[in-house]
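Shape matters. As here.
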Amino acid sequence: MRKNSKAAIIDAAIYLFNTKGFNGTSVRDIAARADVNAANISYYFQNKKGLLENCFTAFFENYIKELEKGYSFLEYGAEVCLNAMVGNVLRYQSENIQLTRFILREMTIDSQVVREIMSTYHVKERYMLKRVLESGIENGEFKKHSIQYSILQLKGLLQMPYLNTHYVTEVLHVQPHEKYFADKYSLEISQWIKGALCHEQQSHQKMLINI
């Protein structure tokens, strides 16, 4: 048995949930891949649903932390801040590709867990994005636009590569988990922000910030 059986269980569950789906994965499958006794899963998580909720919580707690790091740059301008948030999220998702793919797929299903996530973590995310977009409009960086639709467009850009990894690989010949992809895609979204949101004469993206 591995020394850190809890971590092994989580790693095994993420892999199996991602490749076989939640319903297609049994507790025995997880225990076998983690090289632990099935009783360990009950000890740490009660059951498979508890393990699923742990995966959701772990993903979104860290996702929100990455957004907050970028949000802290709002004093430097809305464009700088939004690019920092995008870069942080893309790097986080690329570094945790298996968990990201599974969680984003599960978020398309109407379930109690998903509704709870929507009422907690997504509310925090929406607040930060809305505040940045409002700030950009107020200080003249951003053109007047529909904030709600801009949030939807941005969310689509952030999620698409991780929901359709095979398509991304076919088109770009690069894997979404590669650092190169996260860096290059961040620049592409930065251009979208500049073109779709910013006043051409008032782009504030004058410096490269390492976070």
Notes: The chain has two domains: 1-46, 50-202. The radius of gyration is 19 Å. The first helix runs from residue 5 to 20. Residues 203-211 have pLDDT under 50 and may be disordered.
